[in-house]
Structure formats: structure tokens, C-alpha cells
From TrEMBL, chains A, B:
Keyword Nuclease: no
Record protein name field: Helix-turn-helix transcriptional regulator
UniProt entry keywords in alphabetical sequence: DNA-binding, Transcription, Transcription regulation
GO molecular function annotations of the record: DNA binding
A Pfam family it matches: HxlR
Domain HTH hxlR-type stretches: 19-114
Amino acid sequence: MTFEEFQEYIKNETPAENCPVSKTLELFAGKWTSRVIYELEKADRLRFGQLKKKLDGITNTMLSGTLKVLEERGIVQRKQYNEVPLRVEYSLTEAGKAMLHIYYEIAKWGDAYL
Amino acid sequence: MTFEEFQEYIKNETPAENCPVSKTLELFAGKWTSRVIYELEKADRLRFGQLKKKLDGITNTMLSGTLKVLEERGIVQRKQYNEVPLRVEYSLTEAGKAMLHIYYEIAKWGDAYL
């Protein structure tokens, strides 16, 4: 779908429930969601404690909840290494990494208009 | 800024407070914000009542609050025609229309991964 086709597409009476934009924006819902994705994009992979340190003000409960939801949505993957002590790392899936294109458009807009 | 430059940019330790992505995502905060922008993009310009009809479940207070915030942020413009009865129309500013590029990336992502 080109940008022009997209413009045409939204002019038609697309019901909001079927709209790919609404559905995707729902994935960003949650105070910390976009920040977690952003930090994982920057760092490639992070342990829980490392991620927490980067997110000023987040609690353990909020971070584990956000990670759980992102895992269920297929955006974040959790990898457990059977070492002692147990090592768990979080990283973006292919879908999560592809979100960088959305962030790029958002950044360009912010640069131009904020 | 190209996409490659953007990738480089975020790898550096950009503090989240100065990040154009965070700042722009804040503009989308609010349950109805993105839906209002989307409906105004589709219809070009709408009166309060027309807009309300398109947003199932929104109250007058929520809609006028959302419009007020979007006006303050320079995304929506309110035009008053001095007719009897008074006619007021809402439309997107240039900055608001440029948000369609963000929606386009969001839609492409949704098509690919949802």
C-alpha cells in the first residue's frame, strides 16, 4: 500500500473497529509501553534490572506487567539462560523491531512541528 | 534525517526528556485523540455534532476537551462563521495533516503484523 493508496483508503468509510491504525495504536496503550520498546531498540537486549534502571520511576510490578503484555502481543521476546544465577534477557521480536519505522515518522513529525 | 541516521541517533544516549518521539507520543495521549485526528483527516472539516456522531460513546465534555487540547497543541483549528445559527467547523492544521504519515506507518505495521 503506497501513501496515496492509504489516503484513498481512509477516505472510504472504514469502520474504526477494523482499522489497522486503531488496532496498532492499542498496542501502544499503557504509560510505559513505548518507552520499553524504545529502550530495547536502543540496547538490543536487556535484563530486567538493566531495563528498570533506564526507566525512571517505574516499579517492578509496572515493568513486569508491561513486559508480559508486550510478550503476549508478540513485540518482545523473553529468553531464559539456564545458568546460576538464572539469566533472563528481553529483546524485540521482528515485529517489535519493525516498529522503529513508526518511531521514525513520529520523530520526523516532532522535529518539524514541535 | 534519513532512517539510517535515525537508527544511529537513538543508539546514542538520548535522554528521554529531549526525545522527539516521546514528546510527539504525548500528543496522542488521551482516549479519543487519535480517533478525532483520524475522523478530521477523513472528512476534511466537521462540525461538533457531526464529529460526535462518528465517535461512538464520546460525551460532549470529552469531545470538547479533546478538541480544546488539540487546538492548543496546534493540531486542530476551529473556525467560527458568524451566521445565525452560529456555525463552527473543526479541521486539521498543516501539522495535523502531516500526522497522516505517522498513521500510514502504523497502518503498514498493523497490516504486516496483526
